[in-house]
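Translate sequence into structure tokens.
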Amino acid sequence: MTLVLLVGLPLAGAVVVALFGGLLSRRANGAIATAALALSFGAGIALARAFAAGKTSLVAEVGPWLPIRGADLTLRIDPLTMPLALMVAGVSALICLYSVGYLAHDAGAQRYFAALDLFVFAMLLIVVASNLLLLFAGWELVGLCSYLLIAHWRERPAAAAAGVKAFVVNRVGDAAFLVGIFAIFVAFQTVDIGEVAGRVHAIVPAGVRRISTLGPDRYLLVPSALLLVGALAKSAQLPLHVWLPDAMEGPTPVSALIHAATMVTAGVVLLLRLAPILDPSVLLAAAIVGAATALFAAVVALAQTDHKRVLAWSTISQVGLMFVGAGAGAAFAAAFHLVAHALFKAALFLGSGSVMHATDDELDVRRLGGLAKRLPLTTIAFACGALGLAAIPPAAGFFSKEAIAAAVLDRPILLVAVIATSPLTALYVARLFALVFVAPAASEEARHAHESPALMLVPLLVFAAGALAFGILVASGALSLGSEPGAEPPLALSLVSASLAVAGAAAGVAVYARGPRALVPVRAADLARSGFAMDALYARSIVAAFRGLALALETGSERVVQGSADLVGRAVSGGGAVVRRAQGGYVRVYEAMLLAAAVVLLAYWSLR
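Result follows.
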């Protein structure tokens, strides 16, 4: 029952706000939505205590759903998914509380809070669904809710376009995911994740599986590859990453929700949950794509001038590191960084929202500066999040990134990518912090900034504290993530990573503390700022091709319809002319027609 409450309470909150929120104030809608998520987190705490008491898994069978083997409404939670469920519910509750203050005057607050609670329900369903079809239902619902939240300010063309872009790009991955589920059902005659894993293990024991498509597990390759495409799209990894930067057009709490705790990490959750049934070569491909994405997005983040877009590209990069951990089979490392990232990225995004609230929604870092004096609490919280993102000890990001690096010590290319990402990350987050909080104020908005209200500051400071303390608690063993830590990072690796991170951060502050600086040619900076023109490439190739096809179909359909109408008209007109000639009013003609008809009938009867 407690497991059902964990998932069901956010759904109940969404239904109540959607049906009755119009009768209530904006603050009341926010209070109901926040209370539902807080109670869901409380249910998660109760489940965690059961695991602490020795439980290995908990199952809640709600009832039948589809007439397919293994496709019942059944929820299952284990030591791996327990921390993920707590993270989703807890982080979302705090973001929802922050939203009460952030959207205090928003006309669409009822719609926003209903969609937010529904979003959390869908994400929890992804975490605890016992079968692939139920997981896919949550997967699709997350995509729908993300569209509603990103396009919340639908009167803004950019926000509406960003919502559509996120929805369309994710349909590519979702289609591949669905076909992958069908392929698994054809191979195993069930969609229950535990049953499929058991059958895979019976055929090819985990210790024997190898990177090969020629062994007895070769039929896993195609469905595994299709599931990976779904994960890449949902988690904004190369080459399906283009929707995420534009998602910044939504309200800042939505950015925090999507980027920190929920949708963008769904692909990582998928890889962690389905690792026992995925082909090893596909897992290796996931790690390689993640490493490439981490480096690529870190370079792009260096060139951004919009502080929310810096954080957006940062998310793409950090999720790439999670893919490295998950693809390398390091479930602990990937889950550790996923939760740590949720904490420090939530602090950064909510800090960014506090900056916008204080400066009349100013986003250009070149027009900010000097906010450390005017927003002291926001500055402290943002600094804590920045330390986590830069992986500077003792912040949580340092320990979680070290766990990923330790997991790929035997894979030099992946290790180099992980280590190289560290100074780049520290450099761009230090640049961001320096330009926003340290550099001289560059606009009237920055000079007259004011601190945010308590409803926004309390969640922000909680996330900041978590960004610092979480890593220490996990690394010391005081807090468990439900799986074995794996390899212990060598001291040399820790020293190198920490040194590179500190050096990158120091360079960023030193260079940008006095204001914006151009360190590369303008053309190169513009190219990097555009994400190396991948959006333009898609627009010229795929979008242009589909637009041309749509235009051709529209023109062709018009011609077919018009031609058919003309043909019918000509047929009716010609038939009318024939009938008109026959109906001339001459009696002899009518007599001849009757005689001809009689002859035909007599001939027919005689031939029978």
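Note: The CA atoms of residues 538 and 544 lie 8 Å apart.
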